[in-house]
Design brief:
The chain is mainly alpha-helical. It folds into two domains: 234 residues, no CATH class; 35 residues, no CATH class. The protein is built from eight helices and two strands. It has a two-stranded antiparallel sheet. Helix 2 packs antiparallel against helix 8 and helix 3 crosses helix 4. It is flat, with a radius of gyration of 25 Å. The termini are far apart.
């Protein structure tokens, strides 16, 4: 990778700024950001406890912030893709390393984080709605400590989402919202990105556009044995019910930057649809609360 000169950086940034002002962005990153006052009823109803309007409203605002941050990162990524296409491979690689890698890395973490964030925010809000409307409903969540001085239990994603589905069961729109939320970070997206987010967190992720990873791989495979045949030949046969460790050359090729962008953009569209379905669900649930 060649080091960039000051003039090359300046030229690339000028291209970036010009394109940022003139680009026609694809949906859903065109148009305006998501609105912050999407559920004004939060402040107008009577909750069981004080400050709950602030809890629910603040968490919805933070969810909106995160989705708008993702949108902004995708817009920057989209513009840089155009800038990179103007240069030869060596300069484009250097520009990618300096200006684009961190944006792509950020965006590739959003689908998983957004799915879990939706679950967290919706659980808290709908739990409080039920607290305010049902006298017999208890202020207990599955992750709560079970004994004095105990620790909060870390639920798996499937456990968290099962709890949310149970809490949201009385409300129209639950199934639509749950379907949208569960469409995020799905098997198809993880295959398209070769499980980038998980591998970046816990092992080594594929590179973007250039470079190989996993050059040598360790695998556990069915054990085999060589059986001598006629005329000095040998045949490899599997030993039933036995495993062995195998080392060999592997190699994970890089992820094409444009293809990964397209996959992440589609996830952003799913997230925006999920946001709309959540606001509809919350508004419907709040309709059952008394006015303050």
């Amino acid at each position: 990778m060649e080091p960039l000169t000051t003039d090359q950086r300046r030229e690339a940034l000028e291209h970036y700024l010009t394109k940022l002002e003139t680009a026609t962005f694809p949906a859903p990153i065109d148009g305006l950001p998501l609105p912050y006052n999407s559920c004004p009823r939060i402040q107008c109803v009577s909750w069981r406890f004080p400050m709950i309007d602030q809890l629910v409203g603040h968490e919805l605002s933070e969810l909106t912030n995160a989705l708008n941050e993702w949108r902004g990162a995708l817009r920057r990524w989209y513009v840089w893709l155009d800038v990179l296409s103007r240069y030869d491979e060596q300069i484009a690689w250097s520009l990618q390393w300096e200006f684009v890698e961190s944006i792509a890395f950020q965006c590739l973490f959003y689908p998983s984080a957004t799915r879990d964030r939706f679950g967290f925010v919706a659980t808290n809000a709908l739990h409080q709605v039920r607290m305010a409307t049902e006298d017999a409903y208890k202020d207990v969540l599955d992750q709560d400590p079970k004994k004095q001085n105990g620790k909060e239990r870390m639920l798996s994603r499937s456990e968290r989402e099962a709890q949310l589905s149970r809490i949201a069961e009385p409300y129209e729109g639950r199934d639509v919202f749950m379907a949208h939320m569960r469409s995020l970070d799905g098997i198809g997206y993880r295959n398209q990105t070769r499980d980038y987010r998980n591998r970046a967190s816990h092992s080594i992720a594929p590179r973007l556009n250039v470079g190989m990873t996993d050059i040598v791989v360790r695998r556990v495979v069915p054990a085999t044995i060589l059986i001598e045949q006629e005329k000095g030949f040998y045949k490899e046969e599997v030993i039933p019910n036995r495993l062995q460790v195998s080392y060999g050359f592997g190699g994970s090729p890089p992820l094409p930057l444009r293809e990964v962008f397209a996959a992440n953009l589609a996830e952003s569209q799913r997230a925006q649809a999920c946001f709309i379905s959540y606001v509809n669900l919350l508004n419907g649930a709040l309709a059952g609360l008394a006015a303050e």
